[in-house]
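Incident review: delayed structure delivery

Summary: a single-chain prediction request sat in the queue longer than the usual turnaround. Root cause was a stuck worker, restarted by the on-call engineer. No data loss occurred. The affected request and its eventual output are reproduced below so the record is complete for anyone auditing the incident later.

Affected input:
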Amino acid sequence: MPKSPTSRRPGAPPPLLTLAGAALAVYVLRFRPRLLTWGATPGEAAGPLPGDELVPDADTTSTMAVTLPAPPAEVWSWLVQMGGDRAGWYSWDRLDHYGEPSADHVVPEWQKLEEGQRLLATRDGRSWFTVAGLEPERTLVLRSDVDLAAGRSFDPALLPLPWPRLDGVWSFHLRPLPFDETRLVVRTRGKGRPRWLTGPLDLLLGEPAHFIMQTRQFHNLRTRLDALA
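Output delivered after worker restart:
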């Protein structure tokens, strides 16, 4: 009896599974490298940056960059006031700021930042970024350590470390350019344990989400600086 057009060999994977596998392979090999280095030169993506040492054995890393139409001092004024309980993150506010618009101007009382200071990521204070390093008008390093089981941030100095967990840095690096412009390079480095759990989360959720949010932040920073210019 001839085979039905829809029949398949015994043991062969379902067509949808085959298609999903092919799509994942195309994403990993072709699109993912572009997402992780959007806007950055090869030198920017490969070079070391302050904050890298906080996650020396990172499982995933990204380096994205943009040229902004203002000198580093002006760009720094916007970066230094970031925070869920401060100016926001200049990204998709519905996703990371509870729908409250990020600041559209520089706020004097938010211009002071210190190492060790916490920048809230959620209203209830359960999640935050810690200022792990800063050099005014040049470098800002934010650290995030998340207890996945509890769904909240934790202090990495406390032992024992929670399991499962995510550790990461989000760092901003400003370089002056001619004509009063700034090259802003943003790097993330992350490590998760156990890797069998956090690996798929990074690949399918964490990395694409960061790309969406970071490119939006670049756009909104440029828009604010253009308005001032």
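Verification: The CA atoms of residues 3 and 10 lie 12 Å apart.
Action items: add queue-age alerting; document worker restart procedure.
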